[in-house]
Design a protein that fits this description.
CATH architecture: 2-Layer Sandwich
Strand content: 15-25%
Number of helices: 3
CATH topology: Alpha-Beta Plaits
Largest sheet: 5 strands, antiparallel
Shape: globular
Distance between the termini: 65 Å
CATH superfamily: Transposase IS200-like
Number of domains: 1
Helix content: 25-40%
Length: 156
């Protein structure tokens, strides 16, 4: 009896979808082994500075962000940058890992990231509220504005 050796390659990416198009994405990336390393305030601030400087260098939009102790959320749009979402997130992870290596060894982030294509205004608001309220939901602060590692940037 012959065994079918078909191997399925699962991809969370939409086939033939232009990820560099002017869309907004809800992005999550997680620290390797979900370590709570961003309780280190100096490291957390340095990682956010990587996001801010890359945003200027690449010219992409960051509508809101939240760096939690073991993961990161953001609403990002490639905008005028001509960069793919993978370029942007990869650049952020690379820069922040170099910052991490100044006082630590090993890998900072899990190899991949998760993204959700924001489909409409309600979806955008839901993702923004989820990001903004994440520190409250996790019991880190009583009010979202008290969390020092989150913010709203490119919302006019």
């Amino acid at each position: 009896m012959e065994v079918d050796s078909y191997t399925r390659q699962n991809s969370l990416r939409l086939e033939n979808f232009d990820y560099s198009a002017r869309r907004v994405y809800f992005v999550t990336t997680v620290v390797l082994k979900r370590r709570n390393i961003f309780f280190n305030k100096l490291l957390a601030q340095a990682v956010l500075e990587c996001l801010f400087s890359l945003r200027i260098q690449y010219s992409f939009k960051v509508y809101c962000y939240c760096l939690m102790p073991d993961h990161f959320h953001a609403l990002i749009a490639p905008g005028e940058s001509d960069r793919t979402l993978s370029d942007i997130v990869g650049g952020f992870k690379s820069l922040s890992t170099k910052e991490y290596w100044k006082s630590n060894e090993g890998k900072l982030w899990q190899p991949r990231f998760n993204d959700h294509i924001v489909r409409n205004e309600q979806d955008f608001q839901d993702c923004k509220n989820y990001t903004w309220m994440n520190p409250v939901k996790k019991g880190l602060v009583k009010n979202p504005e008290d969390w020092p590692f989150s913010g709203i940037l490119d919302i006019e």
